[in-house]
Amino acid sequence: MGLRFRKSISLGKGVRLNISKRGVGVSAGVKGARVGIGPRGIRKTASIPGTGISYVEEKSLSSSKKKRNNYNGASGTEGSNNLRSSIPTQSLTGTHWVWGIILGFVLIFNNPIVGLPLLGTSFYFFRKKMHEPQNKSKTEYNKGVSEFKKNNLDRANSFLDRALQYDQSNHMARLLLTNIAFSQGKYDKVLANLEKLPDAVYDDPSISFAAAISNFSLKSYDKAIPLLQQLNNIEGYQDEVSIFLGRCFLEKGMYTLAVESFKKGPVLKRTMNPVVMEAKYWLGVTYIKLGDNKKANTQLSKVYAEDVNFRDVARYVEELGF
């Protein structure tokens, strides 16, 4: 059994100085409720005298352990709305010193000899922590999140840029900037931000999808194709992936592969919606490239019957002469 040492000295009016092998601490309060600061951190105790019922809350003064970032991107409009409502804020480190400030302020009236140094020390370290680059970055990030949730994307963008100026490793700020850039069609910025993020972000299919569409929009088809192929079997992505994969092959002049990809999509669905019309339209265009005007008309006429203003389907139908 190890040797233990502890001594508690009353300083009057509910204030005690506690001395142990771990260091020196101070506590204050009345019967049933006390707040103390010591080597282990802040300890708050509340109890109902005579019942044996008590509640204890402890908080370490050491920095919080770093948590792994969860990279949750957005897939389409629905994903973007979900992200806007659920994007988390970041907790500042060093806020526990507020308890020292409160306790020091209380002690000033009971025992200024202990209260004043405690108040001064706690305020000094609290202010120091708040001015650290990581905390400044988190503050700007939280402002950006607030503006993002209000759909003030330009203001959110400014705050998030500032967050990265304070701390380049704030991956949540960069990820949210990437989401904003993608929604605004700034695909070069999307790819520039993704290059600075950990490879683990690509475990999220929405990030891979954003990277693929950005590469496609910038005509980097060889980079977009493998990203899209990785998403082929992921639920919720098949229809859009098959369309963009087919369009990549179409742009590269690989028409047979384009047809195969479009046929894996929603072209066989009877209910016409924008995604189905998109698939049928591009399949029809590909058949024209292959010289099969009959099959092209089969697809394009269905789109024309649903919406004569869909892309330039009216021109194709007129040229085909069916």
Automatic annotation (TrEMBL):
Family annotation (Pfam families): DUF4236, TPR_19, TPR_6
Designated name of the protein: DUF4236 domain-containing protein
Domain of life: Bacteria
UniProt key word Transmembrane helix: yes
Keywords: Membrane, Transmembrane, Transmembrane helix
Species this protein is from: Alkalicella caledoniensis
Gene3D superfamilies linked to this entry: Tetratricopeptide repeat domain
TM annotation in the entry: 97-126
